[in-house]
Amino acid sequence: MIAAAKPDLIADLASGALTEALADIAEDAARVILPYWRTGTVATTKADHSPVTLADQEAEALILSRLKDLYPDVQAVAEEAVADGGAPAITGDWFWLIDPLDGTRGFVAGKESFTVNIALVRGEAVVAGVVTAPATSTTWRSGPHPDGGAFRRRFGEGWQPIKVRDRPANPIAVMSHSLTDDEARRLASRYGCMDWQGTDSSLKFCLIAEGRYDAYPRTGPTSEWDTAAGQAVLEAAGGRVMAEDGTPFRYGKPGFLNGGFVAVGG
């Protein structure tokens, strides 16, 4: 019996095969999560006071196992592992950022806006990412790196290309539900948006990527695994994510903690 060839990370990144594989993994993680949704799942509280459920933990275990099988030499930084054991030191040029269930509070409340996120970082730059929304059976991914565009599919269907829209005369922001109406209005207007819509999780990046909204400003704290996959999708679709000083949004920061940022479309 001839052993199967080992996947080549750089070649797979360039061809798009890497994010095809990540999409399959994220969708399998979604199938682990969905049996817990709207079934009275109870969350426990982590040391940082954020919630965690069995769905988070089981989805992360699946993702880590599958990534290890495909690309065993790439370090993984995953939300629940960090919560249990602390933030690791990055030891190579490449690493994964994994949030197995972004939007756990909404998930426990029975809302639809929770996601599975897997991203690949090289140095300080996110180079590939996949976001899956289990409740709507939808996945977004970046394509061949660096200029292969972005794509969306419903589970079991073919990929459709997506791109940001040109900035309209009346741009609309998509914002975190954690903001008050007054806070959201002030923050949206800072980026030229008089109207805004609230939603949770990394879906905000994907909704800009497919041309439904124009900006996502954020001042509150997030972790790198909350943003990396969505940033990869948005940038592949023609958008940008910038730190508050206007510089590109980078990764591998101390504690994997983000400062403020804004994600924008065309």
Q: CATH topology of the largest domain, what is it called?
A: Fructose-1,6-Bisphosphatase, Chain A, domain 1
**Helical/strand content category:** alpha+beta
- Mind telling me the C-alpha Rg? 17 Å
- CATH evolutionary superfamily of the largest domain: Fructose-1,6-Bisphosphatase, subunit A, domain 1
Q: What letter string, H or E per element, gives the SSE order?
A: HHEEHEHEHEEEEEEHEHEEHEEE
Unreliable stretches: none
Based on the structure given, which CATH architecture of the largest domain is correct?
2-Layer Sandwich
Could you give a quick summary of the protein structure above?
The protein has 266 residues and is an alpha+beta fold.
Supply database-style keywords:
about 270 residues; alpha+beta; Fructose-1,6-Bisphosphatase, Chain A, domain 1; D-Maltodextrin-Binding Protein, domain 2; 2 domains; 7-stranded mixed β-sheet; 3-stranded antiparallel β-sheet; 8 helices
